[in-house]
Amino acid sequence: MDAAGVTRIAHLSDAHVLDPRPGRTRAGWSMRTRFLSLGRPLDAIGRRRKLGRALETARRVGAHHVVLSGDLTEIGSPGEYETFAEALHDSGIAPERITLVPGNHDLYSASDGWRWALEGPLAAFAATSAGEPGKVVEVAGVRFLPVDTTFHQPVTRSAGCMAGDGLEAIRRRAADPGLAGSPLVLVQHHPPFERGTSAWQWIDGLIGARSMMSLLESFRHLFVLHGHMHSIVDRALGCGMQRIFGTTAVVDDIDSPRVRLYDVRDGRVEAAGLVS
Ligand SMILES: [Fe+2]
């Protein structure tokens, strides 16, 4: 938080980091990696460099906190998680100033891939990243709710899930009068709204989206920062205030990095531009 009481958040997403040494365990890129990277070059060094550039930009513009909203890796393999962690450590940003949540890609290799990463290469970031349902992380004067919307599924599906215990935990936090006085910033990979068609919703959408949206309608201090769409999203709710924000994919950056910024002030989260 700065002297004027403003907290600046930098939002990065969808780095889709590759393992530069995939041949350690098998010959070349797996079929799964090739399928998931269709249309994008399998340039492990280039993708890591893009992530490094984006983190450097977040640091340069003085962000108090950095969130990365999932699809951190391409297939969630150990080597990819290790490469991703190296980039974060190399950035020089203190681990407690970074919040990570997994995306569907981060769980394609193993159902416990995210838990494994938090106990292994991402251990330094575990305290401020998605863990048990309802976990609240308070940093730089802002309360974040890092949410895990992932489940293990075949690479032909890219859905998320926010139902049962996870949804109930958010509802409890949202209804907690002790947390109602300032914004509660949900960080999650999948957008909370339903997708255009029921087929697309099944393949790529968030299970429980309707309940999630009604929760957002009910509690006006809830804001969402999400990834997955690989594009800028601004959605207003209630009173016309924008409360759902999505951002571009680091993996899709070309000549320069793109980092989305928000300012938290006067009880709200405001979009503050896309810097490069
Ligand atoms: Fe993605």
Question: What does this molecule look like?
Answer:
The protein is of the alpha/beta class and 276 residues long. It has a single domain (7-275), classed as 4-Layer Sandwich (Purple Acid Phosphatase, chain A, domain 2). 26% of the residues lie in helices and 23% in strands. It has seven helices and 13 strands. It has helices spanning 31-36, 44-60, 78-91, 113-119, 164-175, 198-204, 209-218, and strands spanning 7-12, 65-69, 98-101, 137-139, 142-146, 160-161, 184-188, 206-207, 222-226, 233-237, 241-246, 259-265, 268-275. The strands form three sheets. A six-stranded mixed β-sheet has the order 4-5-7-9-11-10, with no helix packed on it. A hairpin with a 3-residue loop joins strand 10 and strand 11 (241-246). The longest helix is centred in the N-terminal third of the chain and has 17 residues, at 44-60. The structure holds fe (ii) ion (FE2).
